[in-house]
Amino acid sequence: MTEHRPVPAADWNGRPHRVNASAHLHESPDPRDRPARLTVGVVGAGRVGPALAASLQLAGHRPVAVSGVSDASRRRAEALLPDVPLVTPAEVLASAELVLLTVPDDALPALVEGLVDTGAVRPGQLLVHTSGRYGTAVLAPATRAGALPLALHPAMTFTGTSVDVQRLAGCSFGVTAPEELRLAAEALVIEMGGEPEWIEEEARPLYHAALALGANHLVTLVAQAMELLRAAGVSAPDRMLGPLLGAALDNALRSGDAALTGPVARGDAGTVAAHVSELRKHAPGTVAGYLAMARTTADRALAHGLLKPELAEDLLGVLADGKEGEPR
After folding, report:
1. How far is Cα 275 from Cα 207, in angstroms, rounded to an integer?
2. How buried is residue 48: exposed, middle or buried, by Cβ count under 10 Å (0-12/13-18/19+)?
3. How confident is the model at residue 320 (pLDDT cuts 50, 70, 90)?
4. Per-residue model confidence as pLDDT tens digits over 263-282
5. H-helix segments, the chain
6. pTM confidence score
7. Helices (H) and strands (E) in the chain, counts
8. Is 182 exposed, middle or buried (0-12, 13-18, 19+ CB in 10 A)?
9. How far is CA 223 from the centre of its chain?
């Protein structure tokens, strides 16, 4: 086991390594060509942990242990971290200097308390969780036991496959850490090919809500849109939506609310009423979401001068009660 270093993710001159993850997918550097670095363990072999450990391995660190309960977790670990033994969480902490706690948000506090209560946490050990919701306060029991707490949340959706390692290149990470560990936290992110973005402890829930609103809800909206297109007879809804959604996302990232288009932003109350009528007949489960998003879109379009006030009354009337037929 290598000796613990306060700033682990740096070369001998203290400079962080920036790793091109996609390049390393084609090149497998011999670990013997690198100086001795950190041993890495993973507690929770979901979609995130094995990918991050594999990325750290490309930077020269050495995954030594992983824990996983379900068959899917074990398969992921075996695929992304071959030859790394599957052991208990306590055995992971006994083997590793850097431990990735990659369990669901709601399970994290109990996991930390359990590891501390069983004496698994060692002084000087880097404990890194990947929850977007929490900062380092959730690691307080481990910090009191001498661990070094880091919160590194990759702002990325994961598939649980090797493609995730490549996607980490250029991925932003929400970073929270004590000031004395800030450089170490940012260096680890850079080693994984990511871009560190400092998030204050008290801002973590808002930060995470923003990401969930944009990414998680987007998946639901796209899946619903594809189902409706299939019901309308479109044979390849993914091919139809791809260019449209790609352009909409690009425009939104560039221009914000100025990129709003469509019947709500135009104030076409009759078209919106027809939408609601059709959705009630063919996909009633989508009506509530359609109305909620349309109301929010109308409010933002009105506030930014895109929706004319004289057209807003009828539109908002349709959206207020979701009635079928003509606007009132």
Report:
1. 33
2. buried
3. confident
4. 999 999 999 999 999 999 99
5. 21-24, 49-58, 71-80, 89-95, 108-117, 140-144, 163-167, 182-191, 204-211, 217-231, 237-255, 263-266, 269-282, 287-303, 309-321
6. 0.82
7. 15, 7
8. middle
9. 19
